[in-house]
Structure formats: C-alpha cells, structure tokens
TrEMBL record:
It comes from Sphingomonas astaxanthinifaciens DSM 22298. InterPro entries: LACTB2_WH, Metallo-B-lactamas, RibonucZ/Hydroxyglut_hydro, Sec-metab_biosynth-thioest, WH-like_DNA-bd_sf. This is MBL fold hydrolase. Keywords: Hydrolase. Residues 30-196 form the Metallo-beta-lactamase domain. GO terms for molecular function: hydrolase activity. PANTHER family: ENDORIBONUCLEASE LACTB2. The keyword Hydrolase applies.
Length: 277
C-alpha cells in the first residue's frame, strides 16, 4: 500500500498517524508522525520542518490541546519539526536528550533541538489521556528513546517495520543496539508502531529475527577478516554483494559498528584502516 504524505490515517480511536514528505532509501516512504489521544493529544516525532508538513500536522490536530511533543531521537527526519510545531501549538517539547557529535561521519543530527524536558529511562508521564513511559534504547543513536503506552510501543528507528536499523559510529554502537533489542524482549508490549514502515503485530518474532541477523552478520565479518585482512570498504563489498549503490554508506557504517564491537571484545584489531585478527 502506498501512503499519501499529509493524509491522516487512523489506527485506533485514540491513535492516528500521518506521513512526512521525506521518502528516501533510508526512510522508506518517509517518517510517520503519530498522534496519541482523542480530546487531548501527544504528537510523536513531528519529522522535518517543512512548512506544508507542519500545516498538515496542525490540520490533523484540528484545534485540540496538545499536551506535549515527544521526540525519540534527534536525526533530522524526526526532530526539526518540533520547533515550529511548538511555536504553533504552545505545547512543550519532551523526549530524548540533545546530541551533537562534532566531526562525526553522521551529519544527520539536529543541532537545534532544544527540549523543555528530557525524559529518562522508565519515566512515566500522563499525556493524551494515557500514561506514556520512556524506554531508553541506545544503539541507533546514544540518545534514542522508545515510548510505551499500554500494549503499544512506539519504537522510533530502533525497530522499524520496513528495514533493519542503520548503526553509524561514533555515536551509534552495535553492542548497545543489541542490548537494547534484548531489553525490549523482556517487555510486555504486543504491537510496535515504528517511525518508518508498518505496525509490527508480532514484535517478539521480529526482535528474535533482528538479533539473529546481527549475530550472523558479526560472525560473517569475523570470518571475512580471518580469511583476508582489509579496510571497511573492502570488507563491506565482500559482505554485501550486489548492494544498491545508494546504500553503500549505510552498509559500511553498520559493518564498522560490528567491527568496533568485535574489537572491544578482543576478537579483532586494526592497524590504520586495516582490520585483522
């Protein structure tokens, strides 16, 4: 199913979503903005600061009070729309901590993100007529939060409904990402609403699959280094044959994240740009 940016798609009496106009190989159709509540709302991940997109969110809000704007993490496809939405609604901005990594290869951080309140792991707030819990899930970014509300988990980019998650060092950390997946396995939520892709109706199965995929990729990279030392580009080309050229950067970053985790465990070492056993 192809979705129309700016159109409101109801998911339940107290939940709806609309799509930001930012499709790409990294975002799929775009970023989903979730509206939680009925008479009062919480708006989750408002997306880019595109004026037409902000106008579409305001039309979907339809004059209802907004208790807070929530943000899972500060990549530019998630948080920049929070500032103009806060100005238009008067709602406070709550969510993850600010994060800027000078010199990082990850150029996609929102340096202007300025929350009114940083939510910590396990903190619960009453918003949109329900109780929402912040769940710290570092890995994709160090400041990433998911938000739990009853049986639902709003999983941001940590667990997506269309693709695996990119982990980009130095802020992204594969070991933390895998620990966060295991953390979610211990939680009770039965449906996930990611920021990209469709709702996940069997999250435990997906979590097992994601962890298995990462373990297999780690073992593959270790085997490739054992066969022949090389830099990240060479190892990625061997690990991801026939890769879409648009995704090479993401694949290299995620391979590097795996290699760094293996290095931290003493399984690999590197000399300059070359990884070896």
């Amino acid at each position: 199913m192809t979705h129309e940016p700016g159109r409101l798609y109801p998911l339940a009496d107290d939940l709806a979503r609309l799509l930001a106009p930012n499709p790409s190989p990294y975002t799929g159709e775009g970023t989903w903005v979730h509206l939680i509540g009925t008479d009062r709302l919480a708006v989750l991940d408002p997306g880019p600061a595109d004026p037409d997109h902000i106008a579409a969110i305001l039309a979907a809000i339809a004059g209802r009070p907004v208790d807070a704007i929530l943000v899972t993490h500060t990549h530019r496809d998630h948080s920049p729309g929070a500032a103009p939405l806060r100005a238009a609604t008067g709602a406070p901005l709550w969510g993850c901590a600010p994060l800027v990594i000078p010199g990082s290869q990850e150029a996609g951080f929102d340096a202007d993100y300025a929350p009114d309140r940083v939510l910590t792991d396990g903190e619960r707030v009453a918003l949109g007529g329900t109780t929402i819990e912040a769940v710290h899930t570092p890995g994709h970014t160090s400041n990433h939060l998911c938000f739990a509300a009853g049986e639902r988990l709003f999983s941001g980019d940590h667990v997506m409904g269309w693709s695996t998650t990119v982990v980009i060092p130095p802020d992204g950390h594969m070991g933390d990402y895998m620990k966060s997946l295991a953390k979610l396995q211990a939680r009770p939520e039965t449906i996930y609403h990611p920021a990209h892709g469709e709702p996940v109706a069997d999250p435990q199965r997906l979590l097992r699959g994601l962890l298995t995929h990462r373990v297999q990729r780690e073992r593959q990279l270790l085997r490739l280094v054992e066969e022949q030392a090389g830099d990240v580009a060479a190892l990625t080309a061997r690990a991801y044959p026939a890769l879409d050229p648009r995704l090479v950067r993401a694949a290299e970053a995620t391979a590097l994240a795996h290699l760094i985790t293996l290095e931290e465990r003493g399984a690999l070492s590197r000399v300059g740009d070359t990884w070896k056993v």
